[in-house]
Design goal:
23% strand; binds 5'-O-[(S)-ethoxy(hydroxy)phosphoryl]adenosine; alpha/beta; Rossmann fold; 31% helix; GMP Synthetase, Chain A, domain 3
Length: 649
């Protein structure tokens, strides 16, 4: 079998939840699964009926593979459903407990506050001339204003594209240009580990290359000012001075785009994943409710940044659609100290905690003693997302964070799927370390081989057989790439997610990892080609091949094999320069951990780099089929180079 099974461990440990958890759970039996198995449209329709529609849909689904439309003819608004729908009942309920990075900096925002703010911000957007269908880039720190900005766009029908604030100005400009945004919403500074990073300056740098930008709207987070370009730049607080605090939500067509979120693919250019209003809303609402088994008394903390899909679905939308109270933290897990996450859980009595395997592995490395100083008794459910949660990390999470009493939902999904697809609901199925579990109601998955034949045992490509409401609709301005990336001829009716997986005899699914050239560093997807393009952009570089290698904490780390131009001296200073160049072009998340200078890389006779061989080399695996290799001699010298570089690092 082609997909490596190295992390497919024999796992016999199974964990059940207490009778009490089961009795109190929202999903007590398989009736939702049965309903969905019987007719998945009925299942989704029933969930959609829990939300507010200005006009009900005429048809639930129109599936013309590979294009799905959901709730056709329906009119709704996601911001209305997050806010107005809860008024006046939840007016005084806390929507967000927000904690700033430095001691004592905290704020609370009720649903009433959020309602008022979002409406004001929406009126501010209108004042700037933003209309339905316009694209707005959001480049913000983890402050509640980021959610306000997203919801304000959604309220008036503008399409937001949030760009993670860790991306460089170059990466920001690339996304603004692809989406042809007319406005960027940002803040003056980001607080990161005790430093103030002037993020507005990065926006200034980016928009120099963006002809479509008319305005930059800036939230002020500190006393000191930052440079503003007259006419183009506006302070948010000045813009909304005197604007009405009522702005009714635009009735949006269910299939109108809600947002574009860029994610890495296998070419140098990021893909603009397009999600639409109605289907995404139903997916976010339903999965939040069932997967996290939510109750009115819960305090939910998803640690993801709003710049990623997890921050969209499980910070900005899903919990608010359900009227939940959330925690949002501005800072890093180790600032101001390594116990800050546990301090936050204790202080706000967090009951549901949703984080990434990288963070869990980091906490386990820091040691369980740190947690002992805090009371984590409020926790009742834990979640994980973004990468495979290996059994050791699973056990550590279970023992030290969950005190052996909290079930863990290991949730598999993607930017493209919009909401969680696979996880075991603890009230229904046992949990098995290392396994995400089974698909949620309405989701049908299948493992197939390269030719699309179903695989019963062992590992294969993970596919989704039926459309679901929160699936991506297309790639922004590139429907051909949408078709080619996720579907296969002649039928185009099965979604290929790009991951390999394996199934145990009970149907539990273990995600093995990407089968394409996408690297997953700390749960962040980065395309090999994106990093390669950034490196060849440097004047010293002739050619590059980038592959992932296993990393104890981050899951994967980036290794770059670099061929320099003639007469360029390969030294350590140049390695650092090249690493910095990647950071400038993409962002710190894409910084290569190892750079290896080499004379050549393995290639096919048609000149394509065989990353597969390099991947095997850095994984210390035996090298597979080399018959198509044009330059056989390069492999042994590269192997030596690599071993040498490894021994020095
Ligand atoms: C990986 C994040 C193993 C997978 C929500 C997927 C996972 C990619 C899991 C999507 C999981 C996500 N176990 N791997 N529970 N969840 N992945 O678009 O490779 O940032 O294709 O969405 O992350 O990453 P994305």
């Amino acid at each position: 079998m082609k997909y490596t099974m190295q992390n497919l461990l024999k796992e016999d440990r199974l964990f059940s939840v207490s009778q009490r958890f089961k009795e109190g759970a929202r999903v007590k039996d398989r009736s939702l699964f049965d309903l969905a198995d019987n007719n998945y449209c009925d299942y989704w329709q029933k969930e959609a009926e829990n939300l507010h529609w200005f006009k009900t849909w005429d048809r639930v689904l129109d599936w013309q593979p590979p294009h799905a439309q959901w709730f056709i003819g329906g009119k709704t608004n996601i911001s209305y459903n997050c806010l107005d729908r809860h008024m006046p009942a939840l007016k005084d309920r806390i929507a967000y407990f927000w904690r700033g990075e430095y001691e004592g900096c905290e704020r609370m925002y009720t649903y009433g506050d959020m309602h008022e703010w979002v409406q004001k911000c929406a009126n501010g957007l209108k004042k700037l001339g933003v209309k339905k269908g316009d694209r707005v880039a959001i480049y913000m720190p983890m402050i509640v204003e980021a959610v306000v900005a997203m919801q304000a766009c959604a309220r008036i029908g503008a399409i937001h594209t949030v760009v993670f604030a860790g991306f460089s100005s170059h990466a920001l400009a690339e996304r603004i240009n692809d989406a042809e945004c007319t406005l960027v919403i940002t803040a003056d500074f980001v607080h990161r580990k005790g430093k103030k990073i002037p993020i507005k300056k990065q926006v200034d740098e980016a928009v120099k290359d963006c002809a479509t930008i008319e305005h930059v709207m800036v939230f002020s987070t500190v006393e000191e000012s930052c440079a503003m370009t007259s006419k183009r730049d506006v302070w948010y607080h000045e813009l909304v001075e005197g604007v009405a605090n009522v702005c009714s939500a635009e009735p949006m067509d269910a299939e109108d785009p809600l947002f574009i979120l860029y994610t890495s693919g296998t070419t140098g250019k990021p893909k603009g994943i397009v999600h639409t209003v109605g289907g995404y809303m139903v997916g976010a609402y339903t999965t939040t409710k069932y997967v996290f088994d939510i109750k009115d008394s819960d305090v939910f903390w998803c640690t993801a940044d709003v710049g990623w899909i997890t921050g969209h679905t499980y910070v900005a939308y899903g919990p608010m659609l359900n009227g939940m109270t959330q925690v949002m933290y501005e800072g890093a897990p180790n600032y101001p100290h390594k116990g800050v996450f546990w301090e936050i859980i204790q202080e706000y009595e967090v009951s549901i905690f949703y984080t990434a395997p990288t963070a869990i592995r980091m906490f386990s490395k820091w040691g369980a003693d740190i947690l002992k100083a805090y009371d984590l008794g409020s926790l009742r459910l834990l979640g994980s997302v973004g990468e495979p949660l290996n059994p050791e990390a699973w056990m550590w999470y279970h023992e030290h964070v969950g005190n052996k009493k909290c079930p863990i939902v290991d949730t598999w999904w993607q930017t493209e799927t919009g909401s969680i697809m696979i996880t075991n609901l603890p009230s229904i199925d046992k949990q098995k370390p290392g396994y995400a579990g089974k698909p949620l109601p309405g989701i049908e998955v299948e493992l197939v081989d390269e030719s699309g034949n179903q695989i019963q045992h062992g590992s294969g490509l993970l596919t989704i057989k039926k459309p679901w409401p929160s699936m991506l609709r297309t790639l922004w301005k590139d429907d051909a790439r949408y078709r080619a990336t996720y579907f296969r001829s002649p039928d185009y009716d099965t979604y290929y997610c790009g991951d390999a997986a394996a199934k145990d005899e009970d149907g539990n699914i273990m995600i093995i990892g990407r089968v394409d050239d996408v690297i997953n560093v700390s749960g962040h997807r980065i395309g090999s080609m994106e990093i390669e393009s950034a490196l060849v952009d440097h004047e010293a570089v002739a050619e590059v091949a980038v592959v992932p290698k296993p990393h104890e904490i981050r899951g994967e780390a980036i290794v770059a094999f670099v061929i320099l131009k003639e007469h360029i001296l390969p030294d350590d200073a140049l390695k650092n320069t090249l690493k910095k160049h990647v950071v400038d072009m993409i962002g710190a998340i894409a910084r290569p951990e190892t750079i290896i200078f080499t004379q050549d890389v393995p290639k096919t006779r048609s000149g394509k780099i065989m990353r597969r061989l390099l991947r095997e080399m850095v994984h210390d695996l035996p090298l597979s089929d080399m018959t198509t290799l044009a330059n056989q001699e390069v492999v042994s010298s590269l192997k030596e180079h690599y071993q040498f570089a490894k021994s020095r690092s």
